[in-house]
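Intended use. Records like the one below are meant for learning the mapping from a protein sequence to its folded structure. Do not use them to infer anything beyond what is encoded.
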Amino acid sequence: MAYQQRRDDNVYAQRQMFKGNWTCSKCGAAITELPFEPNPERLDQLLCKNCHREKRNSGERNFQSRGDRPRFEGNWTCSKCGKEITSLPFEPDPARVNQLFCYDCNKERRSRRF
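Structure written out for the chain above:
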């Protein structure tokens, strides 16, 4: 069985499902289909559809929230609008500082891609 995956142009494409005999690491339920081929080294981390949905809806994550990310202070300029940038959530590559975007310009760029 395949399930539909939304694409940019609002057309749904069929995505391949992988069949197997796995077990949910949280509730122990049988998992017979997955939308990806699981990594054999991570089979103990698989979740059934219900446990995955529950985890997603609860906001539980395996990574830090964006608010907890370290910030890098500096004095940079947005390459599009020229606005001053004083803080970034990553350390910029010195060879690419002419490719930095402020929050607003980056948000605009990302919205055009999706």
